[in-house]
Specification:
The complex is a heterodimer.
Chain A: E1 4-9, E2 13-20, E3 23-26, E4 36-37, E5 39-42, E6 48-50, H1 52-56, E7 65-67, H2 80-88, E8 93-95, E9 101-105, E10 108-110, H3 112-131, E11 137-142, H4 148-160, E12 164-170, H5 171-178, E13 187-194, E14 199-207, E15 210-219, H6 224-243, H7 251-267, E16 273-284, E17 287-296, H8 297-321, E18 331-335, H9 342-352, H10 365-377, E19 389-390, E20 394-398, E21 402-407, E22 411-412, E23 415-421, E24 431-437, E25 447-454, E26 467-473, E27 479-485, E28 491-496, H11 504-516, H12 518-548, H13 554-570, H14 576-600, H15 610-617
Chain B: H1 6-76, H2 86-104, E1 107-109, E2 123-129, E3 138-143, E4 146-148, E5 151-154, E6 157-162
The chains are: A alpha+beta, B alpha+beta.
Chain lengths: 629, 164
């Protein structure tokens, strides 16, 4: 069955998404990008260019390169707002026969929906390439404040492009869908959409799976580009102060500055400080000039404060229009790339008094919501078979107190995983299986779900017995752990119910804790593993010496014994590097001994003895594993 | 259990069996589809992996390009009195290393000056009228551009001549 794609037909950029395997996926275009500029051009040869390629020639063809046509779709030519926007565009527009706007490209005029149709055609074609099948149906999003004429014109644009538009949905509604908020009842949702060129805020009400728009407001000329400009102006001013050179008129330098400003803006969303490094930005009689300055997050936040404040005012206006107070808002959703900036998130949080929903890529959330709507209309999203996941990792305790995970958190269940383990000491008669739940590296920091013992293991050197441990979670979330001694066939098992019975908050808390302690846990684990490897090395070296005494140079034996003593002394160290270094020195001697023993052999047959096998796979220590079958 | 008429019991059991068989068929079908989905996903992943690898390589290489370009800019400004110095010669050697790295990764410079502007290969940042050149000719290159095979990894920024 053909898929219904979801299209976010934006003023500056468009994105397309589709449901695949129950999840919404963004469709990359022919150039490999996840968004496509909403731009169309007619070149001198009469060839039509759409998207990024149109953008690249815009400067040479301002009369025939059409952008932001969304501002004119379904509008009246004589409206004051329309006139204002027309004056800001470099391309020609006229009054159409029906009183609407028509755009001139080449020697013809086009209605805005015809231009949008050209963009939609490209999006359709790229989607067909991506999916490998024909696409004939779509859901297209529009701003919540679009009137009937604008909505119909958008639908017509789809039709002209060969798409049967199954539904036109509001952008804020699509965003709410992307976060699964359609499952809520009688709640009020605020959608804060700060994109590249425009800002929109909408207040929605959800009840019985239906969204209602209570109010909309915004600023049609406030977006990410303004934030970039503020940074550029700052750099130009600082540079002028330092060097006396004014880059304001240098088109090429400004181009590099723009890219650098955008990059700095992105970086400061995660770093506290970034560097603007532009060598050879320009040159004058005194020589080449460079920009090398730091920009801190707090500097940036100071610079953009007026812009952010500009976005909060419409939020209050929208609440007033909806006759609501801030306390009436139950959910807040963020849309648009600019909402990645921590200062923006903070301002939104402060105004609405609650944490906004994040997590879905803010540039893609509207397209994703449209795809979800498309999936529902196309019957993709059926509630027939829903699968759970294991919310936390499950594993067993291995040598040195390490948590060896067998099933990672978020693994879809039912599932089964096996691994082979072994003994830690010679003639160990039994193994204890301590079933652990949690993300921490050391066993004691996790929850023990249960223990059992498998005994009757025949006498054997450490690392030789093969005990297969299997974790099986069935569709009901019941965990069955089984341990089988592959040598004797003896087995023991334990059944654990309610292993996924933790609340969402508890699971999230454990995941957070694991992240907090990640570094120190890794260090601890590295130390224990170093200790385990060193001990195994001592064991195997001593064994080799014992079994081959006399077959090699006594001086090597003495050196080996010295190195063994040295390793033993550092075993209690907490520093993995110290242990590893000492173990490496022992390893070198051990290898020399090995070579000496082989050199002394009369035959040339390659011996597949235990120690060389172990060397290939690594020491078989309890805690080390072979590939699960 | 209360005794029912035999025919009623038979009917009920027949009904039950039909329902169970139907359910079995549904489950089996669902199972087979799920297995088929996994296999198809694996095949798709194999196709995606190859594509991803080439994309990643292009991405990393393209991030080195601005640095290489800055080094070129530096060489455009070597003060005369230093042009023959050993130090400059050494840095020139480094410049050569970067050039070799790019060539080894299949990176080619995109021709600009004097060629016809093509938005598939170039990005116009300025236009100017010049009587000596036909409309649509590239007059100047502000930033170099590169491609790997047919794929442009960085578009050169150029000045294009307009109708005079």
């Amino acid at each position: 069955m053909a898929k219904i794609i979801g299209i976010d037909l934006g003023t500056t950029n468009s994105a397309v998404s589709v449901m695949r395997g129950g999840k919404a996926e963004i469709i990359t275009n022919a150039e490999g990008n996840r968004t496509t500029p909403s731009m169309v051009a007619l070149n001198k040869g009469g060839e039509r260019l759409v998207g990024q390629v149109a953008k690249r020639q815009a400067v040479t063809n301002p009369d025939n390169t059409i952008f932001s046509v969304k501002r004119f779709i379904g509008r009246n030519f004589d409206d004051a707002e329309t006139q204002k926007d027309i004056k800001a565009m470099p391309y020609k527009m006229e009054k159409g026969k029906d009183g609407g706007v028509v755009v001139a490209m080449g020697d013809k005029t086009y209605r805005p929906e015809e231009v949008s149709a050209m963009i939609l055609s490209k999006l359709k074609a790229d989607a067909e390439t991506f999916l490998g099948e024909t696409v004939t149906e779509a859901v297209i999003t529009v701003p919540a404040y679009f009137n009937d004429a604008q909505r119909q014109a958008t639908k017509d644009a789809g039709k002209i492009a060969g798409l049967d538009v199954k539904r036109i949905i509001n952008e804020p509604t699509a965003a709410a869908l992307a976060y699964g908020l359609d499952k809520k009842t009688n709640e009020h949702i605020a959608v804060y959409d700060l994109g590249g060129g425009t800002f929109d805020v909408s207040i929605l009400e959800i009840g019985d799976g239906v969204f209602e728009v209570k109010a909309t407001n915004g600023d049609t000329h406030l977006g990410g580009d303004d934030f970039d400009q503020v940074i550029i102006d700052h750099i130009v001013a600082e540079f002028k102060k330092e060097s006396g050179v004014d880059l304001g008129k240098d088109r090429i330098a400004l181009q590099r500055l723009k890219e650098s400003a955008e990059k700095a803006k992105h970086e400061l969303s995660s770093a506290i400080e970034t560097e603007i490094n532009l060598p050879f930005i320009t040159a004058d009689e005194s020589g080449p000039k460079h920009i090398q300055m730091k920009l801190t997050r707090s500097q940036l936040e100071q610079l953009v404060t007026p812009l952010i404040e500009r976005s909060i005012k419409p939020c209050q206006k929208a609440l007033d229009d909806a006759k609501m107070k801030v306390g009436d808002i139950d959910e807040v959703v963020l849309v648009g790339g600019m909402t990645r900036m921590p200062a923006v998130v903070e301002a939104v949080k402060k105004f609405f008094g609650r944490d906004p929903h994040q997590g879905v890529n803010p540039d893609e959330v509207v397209a994703i919501g449209a795809a979800i709507q498309g999936g529902v209309l196309g019957g993709d999203v059926k509630d027939v078979l829903l699968l759970d996941v294991s919310p936390l990792s499950l594993g067993i305790e291995t040598m040195g107190g390490i948590n060896t995970k067998l099933i990672e958190r978020n693994t879809t269940i039912p599932t089964s995983k096996s691994q082979i383990f072994s003994t830690a000491s010679d003639n160990q008669p039994s193994v204890e299986i301590n079933v652990l739940q949690g993300e921490r590296e050391m066993a004691v920091d996790n929850k023990s779900l249960g223990r059992f013992v498998l005994d009757g293991i025949p006498n054997a050197p450490r690392g030789v017995p093969q005990v297969e441990v299997t974790f099986d979670i069935d569709a009901n979330g019941i965990l069955n752990v089984k341990a089988v001694d592959k040598g004797t066939g003896k087995e023991q098992k334990i059944s654990i119910t309610g292993s996924s019975g933790l609340s969402k908050e508890e699971v999230e808390r454990m995941a957070r804790e694991a992240e907090l302690h990640a570094d120190e846990d890794k260090k601890k684990r590295a130390t224990v593993e170093a200790r385990n490897m060193a001990e195994t090395l001592i064991y195997s070296t001593e064994k080799t010496i014992r079994e081959n005494d006399g077959k090699f140079d006594g001086a090597l034996k003495t050196e080996a014994e010295e190195k063994i003593k040295a390793v033993r002394e550092v075993l209690t160290s907490e520093d993995a590097e110290v242990i590893n270094k000492s173990a490496e020195e022992l390893s070198t001697i051990a290898q020399k001994i090995g070579s000496a023993i082989y050199a002394a052999q009369p035959k040339e047959e390659p011996k597949a003895d235990e120690s060389s096998e172990k060397k290939e796979e690594g020491p078989t220590v309890e805690g080390d594993f072979t590939e699960p079958k | 259990m209360p005794k029912k008429k035999d025919s009623e019991t038979q009917e009920a059991v027949k009904h039950d069996i039909e329902a169970i068989l139907h359910e079995r068929d549904e489950f089996l079908d669902g199972w087979k589809r799920a297995l088929a989905d996994i296999e198809n996903l694996k095949k798709q992943q194999d196709r995606d992996k190859e594509y991803l690898l080439s994309m990643l390589k292009a991405k990393v290489v393209s991030e080195i390009l601005p640095i290489a370009d800055n080094l070129e800019k530096a060489f455009n400004h070597v003060p005369d009195e230093h042009k023959e110095s050993d130090w400059v010669k050494g840095v020139h050697g480094i410049r050569g290393q970067i050039g070799n790295f790019l060539t080894a990764n299949g990176v080619e410079k995109i021709e600009t000056k004097g060629n016809l502007f093509d938005p598939n290969l170039h990005e116009a940042v300025m236009q100017e009228s010049d009587p000596d050149y036909d409309e649509g000719t590239i007059l100047e290159e502000f930033e170099p551009g590169y491609k790997i095979g047919d794929k442009v990894i960085k578009y050169p920024k150029v000045k294009v001549s307009t109708k005079y």
